[in-house]
């Protein structure tokens, strides 16, 4: 199921076995709001495209095994097209949307984590989506400093989307 946001400079292609309309709509809203905010801060390009797959535990485990060598399910995976020997965005025509990459979210894992952390599924879903978006843009959490920067940026974006910890009851 594709949900292009024609009026936005950012586009999301959303699919996968667990791509329910509700999650697709939330992903598009939070994703576009987050990318607009990141673009205004000079962190994201002015136009971009993201592919989002909403999957079950078995499918995300298969991706995790194939691409990270870890034979276990996880909550979110990100595959940036801006890192490594990926696309050189300087070669794109002016105004062309930058293909940022792919995000894979396990919907069952998201639901379990929302229960575990005591907040709404919407908050957890948005957290995983924003976390994935930041990875597409080069954020990481390998050091304590990087982890804090990523956490602070994630929380700020979630607050802007009305999904802060306080707003979600946690």
Short description:
The chain has 170 residues and is an alpha/beta fold. It contains five helices and four strands; from the N terminus they run E-H-E-H-E-E-H-H-H.
- Radius of gyration, whole Å: 15 Å
Which strands sit side by side, in order, in the main sheet? 1-2-4-3
Strand content: 15-25%
Tell me about the largest β-sheet.
4 strands, mixed
Average pLDDT score: 88
Element-level helix/strand string: EHEHEEHHH
Helix content estimate: 40-55%
Architecture, according to CATH? Answer: 3-Layer(aba) Sandwich
Instruction: Give the beta-strand count.
Output: 4
| Unreliable residue stretches | 1-6
What does this molecule look like?
- This protein is of the alpha/beta class and 170 residues long.
- The chain has a single domain (10-160), classed as Collagenase (Catalytic Domain) (3-Layer(aba) Sandwich), CATH 3.40.390.30.
- It has helices at residues 21-40, 57-68, 107-117, 121-136, 144-160, and strands spanning 10-15, 48-55, 76-80, 98-106.
- The termini are far apart.
- Residues 1-6 have low confidence and may be disordered.
Annotation keywords:
four-stranded mixed β-sheet, alpha/beta, globular, 5 helices, disordered N terminus, single chain, Collagenase (Catalytic Domain), 170 residues
